């Protein structure tokens, strides 16, 4: 067969991982070149649609064919660079991913199993068979799945985990040794939390990475998370490609990243870069890799781990340096020396990346959402915008894989421009069919603390201690929204009146003529009055005594609508309009539900009976779609408030569902192994 995998990199990790010898560390890899399957080692390589990327030297001979052992946006990302380099690609896929974008982009495709990752994207035997069948010369695993599936520590049981945690000293971080992305990761402040963290982390690790081994390390509270991108070759050369600021996180998973960091000065940047390069050289690392640090308020930095792979957030580094990291990985894997010296690595401009997820940000900053993308439109028409994605209209977001929709990257000459472009890009991003986190992303980048650079890994919980509630409208913004809603309502009513009169009709059709539309608008449980009049493309609207002029094309069929309100330009999305007066409008990133009626209809509506709210205190419903991993109760059991009832796994993250009150279990409506949807009834109490 055509080969085994030649590594693009090696691996260093935190805590107990750092005790491994350079020889052991060198067994990790980043791109695999094939030769001898009985002694394979693993790791990775990667690519991008480039706002800013280096040119490719066509005289350099690399590989004829690369198998991409991943899915979604990262598979598409790798395939794009391979195509640019003239390399044929092989995609692997599960049976539910047969029509996915990455499969269509590749030159060849091989099904490696059914939907569960353990039977497909983590199925080493099936992937090796695909390599043999297609005669691929190298493998790029991207990130996640098999990209860091290396042996680090011995298996622990829960007692051993507690012993180690006590030895280190609380608080501690428990995390999967085989992966990242916040999966298989828990913070423990005492013995009980260590036991729970061990249970959930090992189960998540096994489900996500096919490896349930864990690491335990000291948890540092309130730090910044800053990482250094490194690049090494097989000739002893290594570079640091500046830093990435990755402190905005939820559940230990990055949400917003940027390069460079607003916090670092040139001296600290150089010190961190030189230490990262020293580490890479010490283990003879040859690939793109990332050395992660925790940084305190005094710019003291502490080694966290080294990821021997391409990071999700690598595009921001590409933007400010002009390098295509996937291309560099492929070159290094083939044995070419680096083309650049340290003095050649610039910081040109500023780049910001937002991870766009199919998640509900109003539930714990993002519980997974599933569904089919009924409408999807990326904001790539805007200047300085790059989108790395692996989906299209009609794509499914399922419970089996990570819920990332895309990586949205903006680039500008400075941080202010990059953030303004991100704000515009988020407003112009059309995603229908699934719940998404656009509202949270937009609020983060306009937050005054974020703009000043006053951030740490607890930013979200500090800024939103009671959870994310969406954008809080100022009085001026509220009046703008009400004026826009009034204009949309009247525009819709006027359009409905413009129908063609049938020929030879003997009955004249009388079209009502209304000069001023008197309206009643309900927003956030408050009722407002408005009077709207129309003059071509402009509506004059008086809202609670304030007069505003609203101008637009009023193309109600368009998913995006550019609206000018008294000289202020806004991009809004009218998500739904119902005959009963209900309207959903995405305004400043947040979706607002507006109930708008004519004054007469509002008067009559007072006589309608209101629906009695359901008593939900005795029921436990699933807050998200997922898989029931365990049921801890049976009918007749007594439970206390806060006691675990069951465990739901969604997108490889396990969530403990607890009782909302003390009582006796009346009935259980699910069992371990069942798939449940959002809102499905799980357990009833008497």
UniProtKB/TrEMBL annotation:
Keyword Mitochondrion set for record: yes
Enzymatic reactions: butanoyl-CoA + hydrogencarbonate + ATP = (2S)-ethylmalonyl-CoA + ADP + phosphate + H(+); propanoyl-CoA + hydrogencarbonate + ATP = (S)-methylmalonyl-CoA + ADP + phosphate + H(+)
Enzyme Commission numbers on file: 6.4.1.3
Gene Ontology, cellular component aspect: mitochondrial matrix
GO biological process: lipid catabolic process
Enzyme class: ligase
Domain ATP-grasp: 137-334
Keyword Protease appears in the UniProt entry: no
Subcellular location per the Swiss-Prot or TrEMBL entry: Mitochondrion matrix
Transmembrane segments: none
Predominant cellular place of this UniProt entry's protein: mitochondrion
Annotated pathway: Metabolic intermediate metabolism; propanoyl-CoA degradation; succinyl-CoA from propanoyl-CoA: step 1/3
Family matches, as PROSITE patterns: ATP_GRASP (PS50975), BC (PS50979), BIOTIN (PS00188), BIOTINYL_LIPOYL (PS50968), CPSASE_1 (PS00866), CPSASE_2 (PS00867)
GO molecular function: ATP binding; metal ion binding; propionyl-CoA carboxylase activity
Source domain of life: Eukaryota
Residue ranges of domain Lipoyl-binding in the record: 610-686
Annotated ranges, domain Biotin carboxylation: 62-465
Annotated InterPro entries: ATP-grasp (IPR011761), ATP_grasp_subdomain_1 (IPR013815), Biotin_BS (IPR001882), Biotin_carboxylase_complex (IPR050856), Biotin_carboxylation_dom (IPR011764), Biotin_COase_C (IPR005482), Biotin_lipoyl (IPR000089), CPAse_ATP-bd (IPR005479)
Cofactor dependence: biotin
Annotated keywords: ATP-binding, Biotin, Ligase, Lipid degradation, Lipid metabolism, Magnesium, Manganese, Metal-binding, Mitochondrion, Nucleotide-binding, Transit peptide
Name of this chain's protein: Propionyl-CoA carboxylase alpha chain, mitochondrial
Naturally occurring in which organism (per UniProt): Myotis myotis (Greater mouse-eared bat)
